Amino acid sequence: MNLIPVVTLLGTLFVTVLVTRIATVALALTGLSRESARFQARSALTGVGFTSSETEKVVNHPVRRRIIMMLMLLGNAGIVTCMATLMASFVNNTEGTNWVVMLAVMSSGLLVLALITRSRWIDRQMSRIIERSLRRWTKIDVRDYVSFFHLSDGYSVSEIQVDPTDWLADRSLAELRLPDEGVMVLGIERPRQDYIGAPNATTKIAEGDTLIIYGPGHRIEELNQRRSGPQGSAAHENAVEEQAELQRQQESTDVPAIVPEASE
């Protein structure tokens, strides 16, 4: 009895399941949720595609894009292999082949694969092993900071070189009150010194520093052009008022209106 085609088919399906699991963990390491990563991996491997919003999450991220492209190639090859195996299992059969045994072996193998894919315990164990291997042998832990920081909503992360005449120079972060303008200093690159990550309020901005800041794009651009003196201070106060007004508008839209009860 020739069971090689059946075994080959089951092996191909097992590899497909394993590839999907590896791709799911890899996509999750880029910052996607586990559910979204699983959906993306299965969609790419089967070639069914996904919605436009899901497509943007993949296309705009270089690591995810490479993973999805590999899944598409492997998916096409896997489907062709499965189809060829099924054809071979029927073409190469002779009249003496025991169909009952062949169907029993195929059904048992498919049942085992189904149990593997549906078992949460196996999923956790495989995910841990795969994640540990990916972290050790690859550099795939690349987060989607564009989504995390909502950079597509007018916000950006930029660098500002501090010159002697800048409004920022020779002041501490507490004095600058940049959060009141809607701007945050994420880090400071200081010449010939270690990088200052997450600086505190007492950190003083010096000439030659490069600030890595996050905030509205137009506010960062204006801050980069702001010079010391009365005009710079006035620009700061205007920016604070503008940010306060924006927060009031946001809070008014978030809080539901309270309708007074009618008097009896």
Explain the overall architecture.
The structure is a single chain. The protein is α+β, with helices and mostly antiparallel strands and 264 residues long. It has two domains: 4-145; 150-254, 2-Layer Sandwich (Alpha-Beta Plaits). The protein contains ten helices and six strands, in the order αααααααββαββββαα. The chain has helices at residues 4-29, 34-46, 52-59, 62-91, 99-118, 120-137, 145-148, 173-176, 217-225, 230-254, and strands spanning 155-161, 171-172, 184-189, 196-197, 204-205, 210-216. Strand 3 and strand 4 (196-197) form a beta hairpin. Helix 1 (4-29) crosses helix 2 (34-46), helix 1 (4-29) runs parallel beside helix 5 and helix 1 crosses helix 6. The radius of gyration is 29 Å and the shape is elongated. It starts with a helix and ends in a 10-residue tail after the last helix. The model has no long low-confidence stretch (mean pLDDT 77).
The major β-sheet equals: 4 strands, antiparallel
Return the string of H and E elements.
HHHHHHHEEHEEEEHH
Strands side by side in the biggest sheet: 1-6-3-4
Oligomer: single chain
Instruction: Tell me the number of strands.
Output: 6
Task: Figure out the total of helices.
Answer: 10
Number of domains: 2
The global form is elongated
Low-confidence parts lasting 5 or more residues at pLDDT below 50?
none
Strand content: 5-15%
- Overall pLDDT metric: 77
Helix content: 55-70%
